[in-house]
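Hello forum,

I keep getting stuck at the same step: I have a sequence, I want structure tokens, and every attempt I make locally crashes halfway through. Rather than fight my setup again tonight, could one of you with a working pipeline run this one for me? It's a single chain of 322 residues.
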Amino acid sequence: MLLRFLLMDKDHSNVPTNKEVLDRELPVMEPYFVKNPELTCSGGPGSSGLKVTWLGHASVLVEIDGLTVLTDPMFSQRASPVQFMGPKRFRRPPCTVDQLPRIDAVLISHSHYDHLDSGTVASLNSRFGAELRWFAPLGLLDWLQRSGCENAIELDWWEENCVPWHDGVTFVCTPAQHWCKRTPLDDNMALWGSWSVLGPKHRFFFAGDTGYCPSFLEIGRRFGPFDLAAIPIGAYQPRDVMKGQHVDPEEAVMIHMDIQAKHSVAIHWGTFALAYEYYLEPPIRLREALEKKGLTQNEFFTLNHGETRLLMSDEVPNHKTG
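Reply #2:
Ran it on my machine without issues. Output:
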């Protein structure tokens, strides 16, 4: 099936080579923290809001209850072990690692090169050192430590931990449906997962890279409702190849509902051409799927690269405990 995908299936992504067309269709914005670096991220522990900035692909910057969290950071030009070949991004990162605000925690969903990039990891370590807390699923701690991550922890599904000295926010490694591989000999030798971030005021869910599975109902039952979720909507065609590993927009809406998210931001689209759907199709199908379920584009939204959305505390529901 994979050989057929690589050699025989038709690629309908049709990403333009014209920069002006891409700039019009998928603009890259300068993030607010680059324009105004004096602004304090998260507003400290007393912050009344939840803020999310999309940095492209599966990388989002989330400011929650006094902590700033970065997911699957990817700032390199290619999702590959080398930078002279492999999938190349068609939209640049909206900022550099050096332009990021203070980051307290990084969440890694799995080991694929578009989600765990060695160049970006090295840059983050150079910038933040041991002050940066790395969270990863089982099997990735050794790789992180060899890459210079001094403050890293690996967790099994349903295990939890916190950023040192910030035990008010709990990080839970939760299930997803995917796979892992970085070399010819390490198939599924590390775990993959999603992440549930549980703060005293807000809750955030990061789906990572996943196919649809019943685990999301269980996550919603244990930890929902979530104030914000980051859910993938792209890299889903051809369906018989991708269904087990990448949700389509309709399944992304199902995850949104299963985990009881009040707001979700679409990720894993508009940055790399990793599958064969038209490059602008995911948000179109997302809108159609939302309409069929009676949901609005405010509940499950897309952002431009570098764009930020602030979700105020009076927009979010009360939480059950546990």
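Residues 42-46, 314-322 have pLDDT under 50 and may be disordered. If your local run keeps crashing, start a new thread with the error log.
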